[in-house]
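Aim 2 progress update. The chain analyzed this quarter is reproduced below.
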Amino acid sequence: MDFNLLFENNIYTIPAGDIWNVAKNRLYFVYSPLSGHILLVSHEELINIENICRGKCVGTEVQNNLLRLLKGQQNQYIFEIPNSSDDVYEIDILSNFKCNFNCSYCYSAAGRSSKEVDFENIEVIIDYLFFSGHPQKRPYKINFSGGGEPLLSFPLIKKTIDYIDEKAKETSYRYSYGLVTNGSLLNSDIIDYIKEKKINLVVSFEVLQELQDLERGNYHSVASNIDLLLQKDCPFGIRATITPESVPKMGLMVKELATRFPKLGAIVFDTVLSADIFRTPKQLNNYYDQYSFEYWSAKKLGKEIGVKVLCNSMEPTSILRTRTCQGKIVLTPDGAISSCARVSSPQEDLYDKFIYGEIKNRKLEIDEIKFSNIMSENNINNRKECQECYARWNCGGGCWLFSQSFSNEFEEPFCNFTRKALKKNLYEILNERHNAAKKESLWDSINAQIQAKNI
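Predicted structure tokens:
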């Protein structure tokens, strides 16, 4: 059966029989990302839906309403590719190229130096954001991250925030602050300031001492500072980058979080992006398979012991986008403007591809043609791999940095990982809904129907 008409309406049919250990085409997820609806149907029900859609048979009122719901778009926000740099709302200020850590998977180690961003360049960026007159489509997210450890330049961060707060009084622009840190330099005064300014704080931390000391170092100083954050009731999150060494220990990390930091209650896992770690597509594929298994096991464990486990890559239904990254204005310590916070130094191989502007003589110069060319890379409209993929609206075409860091043969493991993640995510959503309505799990309910040969 050809389900092209459903596909043309952004309704995707995903074979799901393998979840119940039967032929894939006996069961399907019908997924409409733009309407937010998910169904689990038999092959016969799917054919009936397609025939009604084609006008080959007359549907009941319930069936017709269902099709209208699947074809519609209900309060689903789609992150679109910006038309120009004026539409960008994420701004990263890379305070410096300095770092007191030597992480095993660092993406910016090649650019290490003592360089700190000039405050005059920060002023130029802030004046552009708040006084250039372009309309604000979304509140600005102003982050201090990347390049190096931002808290090594804490006085400069304070000066920047003071400048922004003062200038913003003259406008109606909305904004928020974020800061990503390795956590080793936090102290009472810094924490009080972060709390006062309502800065969204993220601490990169591997939770287990053996992993932290292996991959990042300074376990005891970071752990004690996390204790201080909790004592001061300062909101923050923990993010752990999962490497091949740490992937089998994700469950242990959740247990450790529940016992060592019981007040925290949540952790975000992130896949590692490093071409130095994965030399072959098979290595990457094996890592993704193990990551998927360990993530869902850790999430189930977390639910049982009171730790919320999250990962955008594993639960992609939470966002709709036409490009994975909607673009950024990243001010580097050298005064260049990058589209990615992970590419910031001339010492890095991909620098020229990601840079689309600079601050020169106290003026911001943007190459809008290059910005447009960057945004045209890796999006669902021009990547052939995305055209018939059911994960396209949630994936957004994949990370451009990934595609530039790895050779073409690594794309297949990444795409397979994304599709499998979405399929599992859809199952978990339906299972949760089913459990809320009935006592048995979705797996048991469908399995009983299969045994009774009703499917």
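Residues 1-74 form one domain. The chain has a mean pLDDT of 92. These observations will guide the mutagenesis experiments scheduled for the next reporting period.
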